[in-house]
Specification:
Blueprint lengths: L6 H10 L13 H11 L13 H5 L5 H28 L1 H6 L7 H4 L4 H22 L1 H19 L7 H21 L5 H28 L15 H23 L2 H6 L9 H17 L7 H7 L1 H17 L1
Helix pairs in contact: 4-7, 4-8, 4-9, 7-8, 8-9, 9-10, 10-11, 10-13, 11-13, 13-15, 14-15
Length: 321
């Protein structure tokens, strides 16, 4: 059996016949289907949910029950996120089919039938609720709030200028809040402020990358986002401001009495600030040079320098304890 239609031909056929079903391609088997579904569910994005372990580290809770609660929180956020990714792809399927790269997504390309995706979304959300209930009722409320906000983002908020990046920063921060609720740790105001500024910077870098991609392809300003190509310098400036403000919040925290109570060697933590400044500045330069992935989190997971930077921060925090 042949390889099936080329992506361009597949897109043209789907544009004329949205309900078209493609025959299996050569080499399509269980392993290929697993890879396709893993891509559809954005399994690689689960790395973002490791943020639930941050309160565990900050509160120095290294006992088994706390780790188990954080692990269940990670699973619940991952299942919930996958359900929303499915809903988002179902909503944006027509726009994705017309996009130069998103047309290769499993739903847009037709590799996953629509009925299967429509069934999987509620099943995943139900599983997320079941796992969250095993943690606590309070954590279930966090998951419900996360689902409501991320669904609102998919349906409407992502099309509103700056509201979209503030929402993304809030969604990242909710993961941190969820981790604190799961393990019963009191969340520091400093941690929440740092998270909001840092994730605001990453969200703005994401928008900057999307705009530069359209600019380089000679495409007009996006119609599904309330941004113009002429906004590029402002978006870059806002990203730098948010990232640097995160380091300012960190510096103020390190000057507080709370640090001396939690850490035996608090002076070591002052080395974290320059490391984060370096990474934020480098990420902005990489975006400017068109060397940034569409998602800065994915870039960080694949970039050796970013991994070394994260390991350095982690080692400094552990050494300071």
């Amino acid at each position: 059996m042949g390889r099936g239609p080329a992506p361009a031909a597949r897109r043209r056929l789907l544009a004329r016949m949205p309900d078209a079903v493609f025959l299996p391609e050569a080499g399509t088997g269980p392993a290929a289907r697993v890879r396709t579904w893993a891509r559809l569910l954005r399994v690689h994005q689960y790395a973002k949910n490791t943020l639930v372990f941050v309160p565990l580290l900050m509160a120095h809770r290294f006992d088994g029950p706390a780790f188990l609660a954080a692990l269940l929180a990670f699973v619940a956020f991952s299942l919930c996120a996958s359900s929303v990714y499915l809903i988002n792809d179902l909503i944006d399927i027509e726009a994705d089919r017309a996009h130069p790269t998103k047309c290769r997504r499993p739903l847009a390309s037709g590799r996953v039938p629509l009925p299967q995706a429509m069934l999987a979304a509620p099943l995943l959300f139900g599983a997320a609720l079941a796992v969250s209930l095993a943690v606590s009722g309070a954590f279930t409320a966090v998951i419900l709030g996360y689902f409501a906000l991320t669904s609102a983002y998919s349906v409407s908020l992502k099309r509103k200028m700056l509201v979209d990046v503030v929402t993304l920063a809030g969604l990242y921060t909710i993961r941190v809040v969820g981790g604190g609720v799961a393990v019963g740790a009191v969340l520091s105001d400093w941690l929440l402020a740092f998270s909001l500024f840092m994730f605001m910077a990453l969200a703005l870098i994401k928008r900057y990358t999307e705009l530069t991609s359209r600019l380089d392809r000679g495409l007009p300003s996006p119609t599904n986002r309330n941004y113009e190509l002429s906004d590029l310098p402002i978006v870059a400036a806002l990203a730098a401001a948010a990232g640097y403000n995160a380091v300012v919040v960190l510096s103020l925290y390190l000057s507080s009495e709370a640090v001396t109570q939690l850490y035996s060697r608090p002076k070591l933590l002052w080395c974290v600030g320059p490391v984060i400044l370096y990474w934020i500045s480098r990420a902005l330069l990489m975006a400017h040079r068109r060397m940034m992935h569409d998602d800065p989190i994915v870039f960080a997971l694949r970039d050796r320098v970013s991994l070394v930077t994260a390991a350095t921060v982690g080692a400094l925090v552990l050494a300071a304890i």
